[in-house]
Write a structure and sequence with these properties.
With about 550 residues, the protein is an alpha/beta fold. The chain has 3 domains: about 100 residues, 3-Layer(bba) Sandwich (Glucose Oxidase, domain 1), CATH 3.50.30.10; about 120 residues, Orthogonal Bundle (Enzyme I, Chain A, domain 2); about 300 residues, TIM Barrel, CATH 3.20.20. The strands form 2 sheets. It has an 8-stranded parallel barrel, surrounded by 6 helices. Bound molecules: phosphoenolpyruvate (PEP) and magnesium ion (MG).
């Protein structure tokens, strides 16, 4: 599945799973216990230091992740464990392996977000063992003579913190879907990516690989001619795409405003550079992922105002905190771990438990909007019923926020959008979660990525239901899930009646060009044809065949 468009080629760099396990019972020469302990401590310290340096170089969110890993490597309890195992006769590598094993089990049993940190712990363990054995460090090289195609089972943010386009020509992973970390990060970096590519890690190291992040094709040992043809087609495509400017509209002038998805003030420059007409989704929880307590009203107000000021005269839609599941917030969490966080107390549901956090956020938003030239809309995530929509809209109005909307990302809300429209001033369809819930497929599970394919006709039906209900009730209905960034899908969404499209900034130029190359009538035909198909593959092909203008863009 292609998830980040473009052509990339280069030698394969296959990220191998882990450093081999030191043999059970591995021992050291008699009388060398102290030397063995010194060796182990030095290796732990060296790894912690190297992780910190890497974090400082990367900065931002990556720095916090890597500093937390460095702290794990120097945990006093872990060091006591390693020393005691050495006293019991185990050599340093095996002692490190077993000491980490105990922590690993503990985290794994806790599950949830902490359970997912097991991979971080394994990474430190492998680095320490590689240091002790003098074998190559696991991980991705941060420099290369020639950009490589990075191939892995899946990639963690820590693997990719220091990577850039100069080093990585493309990503190919066995796991992952269109909304996985690899996909989001690749799009942000502007590097082509293909995910859910079974067997990719069996590709031989240094084999030349040609990756098409648009079609999802991964070709081994291409001829020079194939590479030149693919690269020149891509260059022509980029030039054609970049030549289209101005607000989003179809070939015959039907307006489809193109908006940006942002996670904080840092995303504003790329949004403006790619011609966003406003913000269709401001994910406010991204501002506070590392907090133990709710941020102050002043701090929130500043962060919200920065985004409003970037779009004077435009529209800015801010989503209230969507805590839980893939976006946990420590100050806004259910009281006990849940068996299925994606189906748990998350999003708007948590505001029922913490009404003071909702009141604070709405007050900060009202203060930020006071005197702003942008038009502010505030929307709630994870709305399932009309009652919830009414409760949220009432709270917004009481806080002095006139435009209260809801995300349509739960199938029940799409099916009963007509009732919800009585209370919500606007809708925004979140296709990432709508797919997750429509197909009962956790969006964090790579093996289920085929079910997250937005071209599944059942998903198109739910989108159509919501858009139709919005239009029947005179409400605007945008789409802000990752699917809006697929230029063919963007035309279908416009054809279904979406009133705006919001996406990662990098996706805007191609969507603008695709709309400008297609009439509204063609978009509508494409939507009908896609919904008439039986499989996602056919849905896309049917849509594409009704959009002849896209050929000129190489799409
Ligand atoms: C969605 O679910 O489609 C969406 C846009 O929100 P998020 O990806 O932040 O859950
Ligand atoms: Mg969502």
């Amino acid at each position: 599945m292609g998830v980040s468009p473009g052509i990339g080629h280069g030698p394969a760099y296959v990220l191998t799973a882990s450093v081999p396990e030191p043999p059970p019972g591995q021992s050291y020469p008699e009388g060398e216990a102290d030397r063995e302990k010194t060796r182990a401590l030095a290796a732990l310290r060296q790894v912690a230091g190297a992780l910190e340096v890497r974090g400082d170089q990367a900065g931002g969110e990556a720095r916090d992740i890597l500093q937390a890993q460095a702290l794990m490597a120097e945990d006093p309890g872990l060091i006591v464990g390693v020393k005691s195992l050495i006293d019991h006769g185990l050599a340093a590598p095996r002692a490190v392996y077993e000491a980490f094993g105990k922590y690993r089990e503990m985290l794994k049993n806790v599950g949830g977000y902490l359970g997912e940190r097991v991979a971080d712990l394994d990474d430190i363990r492998d680095r320490v063992i590689a240091t002790l054995d003098g074998t190559p460090m696991p991980g991705v090289p941060t420099q290369a003579e020639r950009p490589f195609v990075l191939i892995a089972r899946d990639l963690a943010p820590a693997d990719t913190a220091l990577l850039s386009k100069d080093v990585v020509a493309a990503f190919v992973t066995e796991e992952g879907g269109p909304t996985s970390h690899t996909a989001i990060l690749a799009r942000a970096m502007g590097v082509p990516a293909v995910v859910a590519c079974a067997g990719a890690t069996t590709i031989a190291r240094d084999a030349i690989v040609l990756v098409d992040g648009t079609t999802g094709e991964v070709r081994l040992e291409p001829t020079d001619h194939e590479v030149t043809t693919a690269v020149s087609a891509q260059t022509a495509r980029e030039a054609a795409v970049r030549s289209v400017r101005g607000p989003g509209r179809t070939k015959d002038g039907h307006p489809v405003p193109l908006l940006a998805n942002v996670g904080g003030p840092a995303d504003l420059d790329p949004a403006l550079a790619n011609g966003a007409e406003g913000v269709g989704l401001y994910r406010t929880e991204f501002l506070f992922l590392d907090r133990d307590t709710a941020p102050s009203l002043e701090e929130q107000e500043d962060a919200y105002r920065a985004v409003l000021e970037a779009f004077p005269g435009g529209k800015v839609v801010v989503r209230t905190l969507d805590a839980g599941a893939d976006k946990p917030l420590r100050f806004l969490a259910p009281p006990a771990p849940e068996p299925n966080p994606a189906l748990g107390e998350r999003g708007l549901r948590l505001f029922r438990r913490f009404p003071e956090v909702m009141a604070g956020q709405l007050a900060a938003l009202a203060a930020a909007a006071d005197g702003a030239e942008a038009e502010l809309g505030v929307m709630a995530p994870m709305v399932a019923t009309a009652d919830e929509a009414r409760w949220f809209a009432d709270a917004c109005h009481a806080a002095g926020l006139p435009r209260a909307g809801v995300m349509i990302e739960i199938p029940a809300a799409a099916l009963r959008a007509d009732s919800i429209a009585r209370f919500a001033e606007f809708f925004s369809i979140g296709t990432n979660d709508l797919a997750q819930y429509a197909f009962a497929a956790d969006r964090q599970v790579g093996a289920l990525s085929a079910l997250h394919d937005p071209w599944n006709p059942a998903l198109l039906d739910l989108i159509a239901a919501a858009v139709t209900a919005a239009s029947d009730n005179g409400r605007e209905c945008g789409v802000c899930g990752e699917s809006a960034a697929d230029p063919v899908m963007a035309c279908v969404l416009a054809g279904l009646g979406a009133t705006s499209l919001s996406m990662s900034a990098i996706g805007l130029p191609a969507v603008r060009a695709a709309l400008a190359a297609s009439t509204l009538d063609e978009c509508q035909r494409a939507a009908v044809a896609a919904r008439g198909a039986v499989t996602p593959r056919h849905a896309r092909a049917e849509a594409r065949s009704n959009l002849p203008g896209l050929a000129g863009l190489g799409l």
